[in-house]
Amino acid sequence: MDEKRLDEIISRYDYPSGRILGILRDIQVSEGYIEKDLLRLLAEKIEVPVSRLYGLVTFYSFFSLQPVGRHIITLCMGTPCHVKGARTILATLEDLLGIKGEEESGKYFATTADNQFTVVIARCFGACSMSPVIQIDGNLYGYVTPEKIPEILAGYGWHP
What we know:
Elements: H1 3-11, H2 20-31, H3 36-46, H4 50-59, E1 71-76, H5 79-83, H6 86-97, E2 102-104, E3 107-111, E4 117-122, E5 134-136, E6 139-141, H7 149-154
Parallel strand pairs: 1-4
Antiparallel strand pairs: 1-5, 2-3, 3-4, 5-6
Helix pairs in contact: 1-3
């Protein structure tokens, strides 16, 4: 994102320092992620510490500091999903999509080489009765098994 576009986003908000989440959201939606250099520039423009912006971006799962794929797959790793095989679901997704992410501080992030799919994990969707669950682009899938994953992914353009 260029500086002019950033200025346009900031100008939508009367009090930019009080509308930080809105500005960050607009950047995320526009770019698909928030580039670290852009975070620094935003901090200068709205006169807040870059550490505050970084803290918000890393706290809220909606934001990403890395480019994301066209389709976002979020796998629940809450206790019920974990007990019912979420780790196996993750391994299956990694195998089918040819990715390998690392879990760091409870976060996981991996994007396919073609930028079609990004896999992340979440702690709970509140759908424990249907565990294990995944969400793709806002669509929730329950009672997921490794055998069901190829069919689910096919609905989003994936093919082996």
